[in-house]
Design goal:
Chain lengths: ~140, ~140
């Protein structure tokens, strides 16, 4: 992990979940554990509040989470990946976004803590993906 | 100058999510490699999940070790966080009465844990790596 930020600001996190409650709850938990200094955007549920994903919410989340250092995106299930990829196809700066393959809760917490410590976008994404290999027991 | 440094502390509370997060955020700001050891398990202090995975509990002795250009600052900062954060951790729990009853007087009276050096010795300053090798 590097402690040098890529540019000004910390890396932002976007949590894309099929459930608004799951995204909000995970964002709340990650913020508490990391000390609340990182922008974490919950993009959960469809536009009308049902279970599912919303390209509009993801797109807004990417904009809100960007502070110059890039954004790391965590999808909860595979079909959320489809939505994120569709949004990224039209994104003006896709190189500033990293879509990660990580456990949702553990990845969100690990990524946020690394971002809070000043890690760059690659370090934050790596922290999320390494969460898969960290045992709880 | 590169140095290695190590210091132990007895936890005032369980190493739950908030103190583990505070520890990992602080550790990530240092250039040195930093580890936390509890019992037989050692974790990268910069990995919040690894630190939580230690399952370190109130009253347990943990050791913070660092190697690198800012090793001493890292160990000093992380011991301070462990001392404070495990004591006030909102996601943790309060010590059980039986734990308080058995704690030394300075712990019961002040709710304060004195960080010790390796092997229970009083605090020792970190030494440059070359000197450490000579001494040990």
């Amino acid at each position: 992990m590097t402690a040098q930020p890529m540019s000004t600001g910390t890396v932002g996190i976007v949590l894309v979940s099929h459930s608004a409650e799951l995204a909000e709850g995970t964002a709340h938990l990650a913020a508490q554990v990391s000390g609340g200094t990182v922008t974490i955007i919950a993009a959960g549920g469809t536009d009308d509040g049902d279970l599912g994903t919303s390209a509009a919410k993801v797109e807004r989340g990417l904009t809100q989470a960007e502070s110059g250092a890039g954004v790391v995106v965590l999808p909860d299930l595979g079909s959320a990946v489809l939505t994120v990829r569709a949004v990224l196809e039209d994104h003006p700066r896709p190189s500033h976004i990293l879509l990660t393959d990580a456990p949702f809760v553990e990845g969100a917490v690990a990524a946020t803590v690394t971002a809070a410590a000043g890690g760059d976008i690659k370090a934050v994404a790596a922290a999320a993906e390494e969460a898969r290999h960290v045992r709880k027991l | 100058m590169s140095a290695s440094c190590e210091q132990g502390i007895t936890l005032a509370g369980d190493l739950h999510a908030r103190p583990a997060g505070a520890l990992a955020v602080a550790a990530g700001r240092f250039a040195s490699a930093v580890s936390v050891t509890a019992g037989e398990h050692t974790a990268d202090a910069k990995s919040v999940l690894g630190v939580m995975g230690l399952g370190a509990t109130s009253g347990q002795r943990v050791t913070v070790a660092a190697a690198g250009p800012d090793a001493q600052e890292a160990v000093t900062a992380l011991i301070a966080i462990l001392s404070e954060a495990t004591r006030v951790a909102g996601l943790g729990r309060r010590p059980l009465n039986r734990e308080i009853a058995w704690a030394p007087w300075f712990v019961r009276e002040n709710h304060f844990f004195i960080p010790n050096g390796p092997g229970g010795m009083p605090w020792l300053p970190c030494l440059p790596a070359a000197v450490s090798i000579f001494v040990t």
